[in-house]
Amino acid sequence: MTKETESLGRAGLRVTPMGIGLAALGRPAYIALGRDRDLGDDRSVATMRARSWAVLDAALAAGIRYVDVARSYGRAEEFLAGWLRDRAIAPGTVTVGSKWGYAYVGDWRMDAAEHEVKELSAGHLRRQLGETRELLGEHLSLYQIHSATVESGVLDDEAVLGELRDLRATGVAIGLSTTGPRQGDTIDRAVETGLFDTVQATWNLLEPSAGPALARAYRSGMGVIVKEGVANGRLTAHAAPPALTTAARDRDVSPDALALAAALARPWAGVVLSGAASVEQLHSNLTATSVGWDSKLDDRLAALAEDPRTYWAARGSLDWQ
């Protein structure tokens, strides 16, 4: 893993080409294929905290300087805050991005009927920002709308936008994450507002449709963060398509590394997130930084791309494991 740091978008956030996301580590259940094999049966708070800290330690040692959390990731913000205190990490050493909009309601149960609830109101923003700041304090560098869509109306909600402008005035960068088959429309609308410093979007070999809009956002001055680069486990050894498995074998890397290398090769990608649930997975993901991606691989793997509606329908059908 290169320890080179770069400036992310007009906000000038100091980041590294790969970051670490705690979506899979802050709660006992998550939508990721192979999670039962990755984590085993012990999903106690103490065990998940220890696992989170081990992955964060490994990420820091590898040079990673961007960490992604959210209010809905169970205890992810709490785990990160405890790690930052215990390791005596000064604000600014690691760039921390969090998100508001979903609330975790799973009560640390694997069999919860519902794990998270979405509400993109100004009141919810104020409540969740207070909770985030109580935990992360001066470490918070970026605050994002979680899974914004055009249909939600959040990008035209003046009460929400006003709250975000006020937050931005305090020195915290403002961003959004996107979801669904119309990510491109959401990204273009965010660019039009002129408010957002960053966008975090799903881009992977199965779902590359947001690429042109992300290029436009990048040209407008926004930093781009890539999430779900391994498609919730569909581009890992657990379920990789034969074409990816063969190409990875030819390059002597794992399927997850090759999938993440594809994202790293996009000229607009500022940070590509690893969602590793273990130190071993993190190390496998990080080999992506040494893969020599080229146009031959683009051509070879282009056929993996799915219709966005098909991709998002499949994602929505994944079980919480």
From TrEMBL:
<feature type="domain" description="NADP-dependent oxidoreductase">
    <location>
        <begin position="49"/>
        <end position="291"/>
    </location>
</feature>
<dbReference type="Pfam" id="PF00248">
    <property type="entry name" value="Aldo_ket_red"/>
</dbReference>
<protein>
    <submittedName>
        <fullName>Predicted oxidoreductase</fullName>
    </submittedName>
</protein>
<dbReference type="InterPro" id="IPR023210">
    <property type="entry name" value="NADP_OxRdtase_dom"/>
</dbReference>
<dbReference type="InterPro" id="IPR036812">
    <property type="entry name" value="NAD(P)_OxRdtase_dom_sf"/>
</dbReference>
<dbReference type="InterPro" id="IPR053135">
    <property type="entry name" value="AKR2_Oxidoreductase"/>
</dbReference>
